[in-house]
Write a structure and sequence with these properties.
The radius of gyration is 17 Å and the shape is globular. The protein has about 210 residues and is an alpha/beta fold. The chain is built from 6 helices and 9 strands; from the N terminus they run ββαβααβαβαβαβββ. Mean pLDDT is about 75; it is low at about 170-205. The strands form 2 sheets. Strands 1-6-5-2-3-4 form a 6-stranded parallel beta sheet, sandwiched between helices. It is about 40% helix and about 20% strand. It starts with a strand and ends in a 15-residue tail after the last strand.
């Protein structure tokens, strides 16, 4: 079953929210939505980033290099940490959060991760603009929607003018104090100032 962002979540109880993360703007939007949903449902959050050797598994199998693979695995973990910083300012401290990197194709990794009763899978959908983005990401979305064993919510990415994505990526971590206890981020979001008010018990994230 698949639902759009604007549709209400249909199941009576969401026991865990699973979100696919790649670092794309659409996946950052999905991470923000999944975090808000996990808070609303008092459910744990599992963020999954799938990675493969850049040359593909078939070519890697012909000339395996463990050091090379370790570097790409470390890069995947760093990208997942950076996604939380870019989307939310930091990993949520009021949720049980698990960060998981998986060496697998994205669709297969997400279907395998969202395998429990009560799971809800959240994935980003590339905007309609940009044929290259559609070619790269829509097949993954279709594969997840068609074979996932749990409900899937799709979150649309922002529609940008040519060149805007490059500027946002280059300045994603730039911030300017706005005098209100928060920092205005270059991507239009806000990074909350540190406060203990209204904060639940923190469950440590793990990679």
């Amino acid at each position: 079953m698949s639902e759009s962002l604007n549709a209400p979540v249909s199941q009576e109880s969401v026991r865990r929210v699973v979100v696919g993360v790649s670092g794309s703007l659409a996946s950052l939007a999905a991470l923000r939505y999944a975090t808000a949903l996990a808070r609303r449902e008092s459910a744990p959050l599992l963020a999954v980033l799938a990675w493969e050797p850049p040359e593909g598994e078939a070519l890697y199998a012909r000339r395996p290099d463990r050091d090379w693979a370790r570097l790409w695995g470390d890069d995947a973990r760093n990208r997942l940490r950076s996604a939380f910083a870019d989307a939310l300012g930091a990993a949520p401290e009021d949720l049980a959060v698990e960060r998981r990197t998986v060496r697998a194709a994205p669709a297969a990794a997400l279907r395998a991760a969202a395998d429990r009763p009560g799971d809800l899978l959240v994935v980003g959908a590339a905007s309609r603009r940009g044929s290259l983005a559609r070619l790269r990401r829509r097949p993954v979305l279709r594969a997840v929607q068609g074979r996932a064993v749990c409900p899937v919510v799709t979150v649309p990415g922002p529609v940008l003018r040519p060149g805007e994505a490059r500027v946002l990526r280059g300045n994603a971590r730039a911030s300017v104090p706005d005098g209100t206890g928060t920092e205005a981020r270059a991507d239009g979001g806000r990074r909350a100032g540190r406060s203990d008010e209204g904060r639940g018990t923190r469950t440590a994230s793990r990679d």
